[in-house]
Amino acid sequence: QASRAFSLYANIDILRPYFDVEPVQVRARLLESMIPVKMINFPQKIAGELYGPLMLVFTLVAILLHGMKTSDTIIREGTLMGTAIGTCFGYWLGVSSFIYFLAYLCNAQITMVQMLSLLGYGLFGHCITLFVTYNIHFHSLFYIFWLGVGGLSTLRMVAVLVSRTVGHTQRLILCGTLAALHMLFLLYLHFAYHKVVEGILDTLEGPNMLPFQRVARDIPVVSNAVLNTTAKAVALTL
């Protein structure tokens, strides 16, 4: 039992450096994640900690859960909490692993922990955009925040990867893939859990339209006299 307790403590102690960070440093890194720096000659510094990115992912989960509840989203299999956690953590871990593999192929100088930290702090722009647009339902406002706030956080990550990658083709492949995935993920989070379907239906049909009913068409109208005459003729024939 003592050896098991010691081994468990040793495993926890391995993760301690990645979460040993001051709140002032986290605040500074949040602000830096929205400021792209154009420096290509030297590799830009990436914080090798996971406390800030993990808290941002949990914040995104809470905001996404709020969007699901306000839009009356119905999950047929599973729960709203499980869907929100799976979506946010799946994107963070999955895209980080994919970009790290792509960076390995493109000879970029970045580790897996640095990639997790870079993409995690890049979600700060997503949290701001979704928090505002889930409460203020204007699609034009969302596109402004999508291009402004989301674009700044994406440019920050792209600038860091450009400074750590050699070769124009490698930079184009790596940075283009990351930018496309990051911006499309924000679009998905907005339109998948938002009152967009009701807005489209109200725009096309109007808020007071009756339900659609199927009407029989191309059927000639036959009078009662013609029907009676035809019935008598059939009866006499029989």
Report what the structure shows.
72% of the residues lie in helices and 0% in strands. The longest helix has 26 residues, at 80-105. It has 238 residues and is mainly alpha-helical. It has one domain (1-24, 36-202). The protein is globular, with a radius of gyration of 29 Å. The termini are far apart. The chain has 10 helices and no strands. Its main location: membrane. Belongs to the YIP1 family. The chain crosses the membrane at residues 50-68, 80-106, 118-137, 143-163, 172-193.
Keywords:
globular, 72% helix, 238 residues, mainly alpha
Architecture blueprint of SSEs:
Elements: H1 2-19, H2 23-32, H3 51-70, H4 80-105, H5 112-122, H6 124-135, H7 139-163, H8 168-192, H9 196-205, H10 224-237
Helix pairs in contact: 3-4, 3-5, 3-6, 4-5, 4-8, 5-7, 6-7, 7-8
Largest sheet: none
Number of domains: 1
* String of helices and strands: HHHHHHHHHH
Principal-axes shape call: globular
N→C terminal distance: 100 Å
Q: Quote the average pLDDT.
A: 78
Short description:
InterPro entries: tRNA_Mod/Golgi_Maint. With 238 residues, the protein is mostly helical.
